[in-house]
Amino acid sequence: MGRRHPLVASAGLAVLLVGCLGSGAAHADTVAGTALYVNDAAAGCSDTGPGTAAEPFCQIQPAADAAGPGDTVWITGRGPAYAPVTIRSTGTADAPVRFFAAAGSTSSVDVAGKASAITFSGARYVDMAAIGARTAGATAVAVADSQHITYRIAYAQSTHAVTAPLIAVDGSSSDISLTRLHVLLPSGPGFAAAAGARNITLAGDLFEGGGAEAAGTTGIDLAGDTFSTVCGDAVSLTDGTSGSVENVVARADGTTACSGTGTPAEITVDAASAPQITADYNAVNPLSTGTDYDWAGTAYATAQALGAATGQGTHDLDQTDLTIPWLGAPAEHSPLVDSGDADAPGERSTDIDGHSRVDDPLVPDTGAGTGHVDRGATEFQDPLTVSVGMGTGYVGIPVTATAGFGNPWSDSLDGFTYTFDFGDGTTATSATGSATHTYTQATTSGYIQVVVLVDRADGTRVGGGDLWYRVEPTPDLASAVGCGNAPSEPDVADCWYDIDFDPYAITSDRITFGDGSKTVSATALSDTLRHSYPAPGTYTVTQKITDAGGRTATTTARATVGAAFVGAGPKRLLDTRNGTGAPKRTVGAGGVVRLKVLGVGGVPASGVTAVALNVTDTGATATSYVTAYPDGTTRPTASNLNFRAGEVDSNLVTVKVGADGYVDLYNAHGKVNLLADLEGYYTTKAVKDTQDMSGLAPVTPTRVLDTRSGTGARKGAVGPRSTTTVTLPKYTRGGATVGAVLDVTVTGGTGSGYITVACDGPNPPTTSTLDYRAGQTVSNLVIPCAYSGVFHIYNSAGHVQLIADLQAVYTDDLAGSDEDPSALTGGQFVGTTPARFLDTRTGLGAPRKALGANGTLTVKVAGVHGVPAGASAVLVNLTGVAPTANTHLTAYGHGSLPNVSDDSLTAGQTRPVLAVVPVGADGSVRIHNALGSVDVVADLEGYFG
């Protein structure tokens, strides 16, 4: 049916029931009588008396039995429902017996029973108000052989459909007044008066779910009632009943199930009653299957038809005039407003809610009688509303409360007095509608209530408004600052700032970028500022703000700008065997090869900070090492490639470029031929195709290829002159360029050969990534471009097992989208002077002892050799020295040990490998040894922002 039947009276009605007893209470004061008290929650209550305030009755029944003329029974409604009561009290016209809800009750008094909750039996001159009656499918209020009974400002309720009337008056009762009642039931008769009953008044009542009927009743007046019934039959007067039906609103709200019941009319008056009934100023909305009226046995579909045929209901409204809402409450401009008969028999001066009858100036008066009255139980009130608004409250900062009005009737607002209660014990009176207050302490829990009361000059109250308010401690002055950049503009930082809410105005906001450039004065509370830095590095961006309260705050952030990586090659730039890039001769002990890299092999002639070279030794006559460093600078103590006589070894080297465009390769001992293949370069200037530029993003180290187990490719050793294609995990959304940083290992070769890792395939390459001998296990770091998400490994000779571990990816500035949670944003590279930060042989960075089997070193890198806090990864040349068993080293940032390797070693071998190592949240890297014991050396080559 689209509606809900409440199980108790509404909160609004509950308050009304307690607070609107003025007329009865005042009359009680004029007649001498005893005050009796009922309170079942009182500790000292007793049903044997005396019924005083100090020792009240526990139930209503003994108080009713004790009450006499002029007595008033005050009932406190705090606990569960009271037991059913039968009222036999006898008062007089001047001294009735009264039953009222006590002042201070938290709700209306509730009487409940399985059968009748309240029964008037043989009672005379009884006035009961604010005492509700509740039952389950039976009569809630019964009046039997009683006279001059007033039952008002209450509710009668059944939680189940009833067959007997919810309120029943028998034929021996007379002068019964039932006013301002809320009658609630799922369905069935809400009220019935039996034959013989006389002088019954139903006025200002709301029937929700049932109608009213009288059979053979003399003098029943229905005035200003509202009926919301299930299937019609709001009013039924039969068997010679006399009286009137005026200002009644009736509507049906049933379902298709009602069609089987015959769907009675909303107002039925049979032929025996019609000559004795006056009906006018009603409003009727029946079901679509029902009719408005059944008058003297004839159905009338409209009020107009009824009026034309009978002269009754000539001022009635029906479905052709309006649609009546559920419960019949009128709205502005409703035809129900100011259209009733103010002089209708039984009409009250107040509506069901205790509101006075008022004139709506926006609606023409179409009613009759003296005054203004709306049809139905509810009088539409002046919609003037009062509210109060106030900004957020902070301790010690003045805040202004302002009264607001909703005033569709255009009432004059002149001469009002405003009383503000700020909820902390402070009040202020104003004639202007606003008042300013300063709170001295914050609300410790919950909220306080801020109230404004508005009174006219004559002292009458216009209304009030309130809001629940919280006073906060004055927030500290603070701002958030952060910086980032894109690979396509590697020397530009985008720094955003956002000043936290400040109740004071910001008077100064100055930002410096940490490179000696001019201070910027910001003008917005949040913004993004772009700044170009003169050189790679990590800078401190500082924001200093001042507010009108004299407070200052300084916030800093790190901005890292460096070089973006551009994949190039593999392309051979150096081969001392044939004179490529340097004279055709071996490099002797202490010899240095100057290799030009700027403007060579696709490397730009300027803007390049470092190059990635795969350096290979061949034909060495002694155990030695190679150090790569910028030309024109002092050679560092770090090494990049370690080898023994007769070996062929490779290692990826990232080396800064000297100011003259050269890099140097130093050989320590003996003679050796050196080869260098270009893998890519780092630049601070945008290249022609900026999508080729990328930044490094560490990922969880992942094994993407292992032919020993069938991971990433067919299980089994790869053959000679074969190409193995490997697919990478997808880390960026479509269209982004990705370069892979891989640690590649070969093992178990049946002969000597080399592999080349590249994004091109399957044609045999002209360069090598890693050289190996039969049975040897060797590793190297490689950076294939893998733009398409795959890379290829070419094997030159013999059969060999291949292993590849993904260490990081290079992403362009399309990556890192909120649309793709797996997308990664790359950081720029800042090259550093090669510096050794770990050597277990000497105790540098860790205890002076070899790293044992399953052992892990934790080495601090943030704050060391220029690596800033917040660096995402470091570029490290990792060397294992003379392990006691075949083993491998794994470098990682934090968390559990990944199932990958960086440097694979045979017993007694000393071998370096370049590694990209994520920096853990603690600013450290971790290095794990699998088997035996081994000394570990680590040289820093740079970091990624």
From TrEMBL:
Protein name: PKD domain-containing protein
SMART domains linked to this entry: PKD (SM00089)
Xref: PROSITE patterns: PKD, PROKAR_LIPOPROTEIN
Cleavable signal peptide: 1-28
Matches recorded under InterPro entries: Ig-like_fold, Pectin_lyas_fold, Pectin_lyase_fold/virulence, PKD/Chitinase_dom, PKD_dom, PKD_dom_sf
Protein's UniProt keywords contain Metal-binding: no
Entry superkingdom: Bacteria
Keyword annotations from UniProtKB, A to Z: Signal
Basic and acidic residues: compositionally biased ranges: 345-360
Domain PKD: 512-561
Pfam families, per the entry: PKD_4
Presence of keyword Iron-sulfur: no
Chain positions covered by the region annotation Disordered: 329-378
